[in-house]
Amino acid sequence: MVIDKARELGIALSESPEFQRMLRARAAIEENETLANTIALLQEKQDLIADRLSEGEDSDCRIDLATLSNEIDDIQRDLMESEPFVEMLDAQHEFENLMQRVNREIAVCIGADFNENSTGCSGNCGGCGGCKH
Questions:
Q1: Three-class secondary structure assignment of 52-105
Q2: How does pLDDT run across 17-62, given as a tens digit for each residue?
């Protein structure tokens, strides 16, 4: 029964406006070859920094790291000027917010969330007819 409910929740999430918007935004990025290549270049530069950091700290490495860091900053600045990229970030943020609200509600209903600012079930059923946990 719990797994069936989880499946229902998964389906409901996949049909949510937030998830659909995120899918559309990701598809727009993938269809934009220039933008997709820019994102791939950013990932490549980030991987290079991780590799350099694991190699050690000689002076050439520090120069490489500074150069790579400047290049990453430039790429990120370019991406933040791209409307499709900003839309994707915003869509992902909205879906993450939805997932946090869902997870918070689940946690509250099982008594795992004792945050005073949370809403929903407190885990104490005295006088409550709500979630029926």
A1: HHHHCCCHHHHHHHHHHHHHHHHHHHHHHCCHHHHHHHHHHHHHHHHHHHHHHH
A2: 999 999 999 999 999 999 999 999 999 999 998 888 887 666 566 6
Classify residue 84 by burial, with Cβ atoms within 10 Å: 0-12, 13-18, 19+: middle
Write out pLDDT tens, residues 112-124: 865 545 455 555 5
| Three-class secondary structure of residue 130 per DSSP | coil
Residue keyed to tokens 């991406």 = 79
Instruction: Give the global pTM.
Output: 0.71
Tell me the pLDDT tens digit for each residue of 60-90. Answer: 666 688 899 999 999 999 999 999 999 999 9
The one-character DSSP state at 123 is: S
DSSP per-residue string spanning 5-68: HHHHHHHHHHTSHHHHHHHHHHHHHHH-HHHHHHHHHHHHHHHHHHHHHHH---HHHHHHHHHH
In the block, tokens 């994102």 appear at 39
Question: How many residues are present in the chain?
Answer: 133
Residues 6+ apart with CB under 8 A from 64: 48, 52
